[in-house]
Amino acid sequence: MSFKMNSLEKKWVLYDVGNSAFTLLVSTIMPIYFNALASSAGINEVDYLAYWGYATSIATAITAILGPTLGTLSDGKGRKKGFFMAAVLIGAIGCIFLGFMQSWLWFLLLFVLAKSAYSVSLVFYDSMLVDVTSQERMDEVSSQGYAWGYIGSCIPFVLSLVLVLMYESFGISQATAMILAFMLIAVWWLALSLPLIKAYKQTHFAEEGGEGLRGLSRLKTTFKDLRKHPKCLWFLIAFFFFIDGVYTIIDMATAYGTALGFDTTSLLLALLLTQIVAFPAAIIFGRLANKYPSYKLIYICITAYLLIAVYAIFMVEQYQFWILAVCVGLFQGAIQSLSRSYFAKIIPEEKSGQFFGIYDICGKGASLFGTTMVSLIAQITNTTNLGVGSLAILFALGLIFFYKTNNIKA
């Protein structure tokens, strides 16, 4: 039986389609462009991978600080939409200006700003889930968001790829093609955020949520209150580890392949394949959540990622990267969407922004640890394979703590 979304659910999903284009840009064209800037400055492949990892780590650290604070303030009546709009605008404008950067250092600094704004926008977006749908529909609506985000983001990505790879055919320079590609992604992101901005109404809110210091004071209380919600606490610990590995793979996949010397065009096409595979896979897992407990499906996803990380240690040929891309696509959307809806079901709805701010610390903010770990191990061992393979440790810990989570009653 097909799953039909209402108008508001569709507009919420549409933002996933918009922001996913930026995610795909970050994981594909951006690292390659940065590699060109770094190479022209005499930076070798290992340091290039490390610098990209450090920049991503800084962006996620900023998100970890701002996410819960702004998430708490956004829980005040009528405030969430304004915070969301500001984050989207900063991120999109930053994306446009990235195309004009010719210095590798300035490019990294602007990347940190745009990436941080993007990640903070997701704190508000994820917390909107409790306002746009009901608990019994959350798994499938969340899965639809990631699914359509993956396939929809392919449209501006393919257009950008055509510009970047075939710029001579259009009679423009490579630099101009890059500027146009970044602008295209930013306009797509902004345009697809407008339906949600127009239609969204905050129905769950905390009475004192947005009142300056009272909101920040309530943030401290939330950390203390986690002890009263042990299922939330243990899930966040598990989530910290396994989603850390997931986001590190997303952030560094192209940088990893580039450092191994793989063909640039083939890398981009392989990651495009990841998006295409992720579309039906996310929908299928969303449907399965109607038949099986979502926690069992999350177990399957974490285990699959553990095996993917081990596989990365032995990757030396380019065809192996294609296999890796398909495997990641099968489980990437599922683990993200099911984790989001699982968490939304176990938190106080009126504090969704506050709790999703903490969720973001343990998610995108936590990838600070993963990207830093990969960068350090790659530099210490002078082997990129061991750096990426070390992520298996994070997935193993995630499995252990998630097992603990599901032995606790809500």
Mind sketching the topology for me?
Elements: H1 7-27, H2 29-40, H3 45-73, H4 80-98, H5 104-127, H6 129-132, H7 138-152, H8 154-165, H9 174-199, H10 213-225, H11 230-259, H12 264-288, H13 294-313, H14 318-346, H15 352-361, H16 367-381, H17 384-389, H18 391-405
Helix pairs in contact: 1-7, 1-9, 2-11, 3-5, 3-10, 3-11, 3-15, 3-16, 4-5, 4-9, 5-15, 7-12, 7-14, 8-9, 8-12, 11-12, 11-14, 11-16, 11-18, 12-14, 13-14, 13-18
Write up what this structure looks like.
The chain is built from 18 helices and no strands. By secondary structure, it is an all-alpha fold. The chain has one domain: Growth Hormone, Chain: A. Helix 3 packs antiparallel against helix 15 and helix 5 runs antiparallel to helix 15. The longest helix has 30 residues. About 1% of the residues have low confidence.
* Shape estimate: globular
Structural class call reads: mainly alpha
Percent in strands: under 5%
**What radius of gyration results from the CA coordinates?**
20 Å
Overall pLDDT score: 83
**Low-confidence segments, ≥5 residues, pLDDT <50?**
209-213
What fold name goes in the CATH topology slot? Growth Hormone, Chain: A
Instruction: Tell me the count of domains.
Output: 1
Sum up the structure in keywords:
410 residues, mainly alpha, Growth Hormone, Chain: A, 18 helices, 79% helix
Short description:
With 410 residues, the chain is mainly alpha-helical.
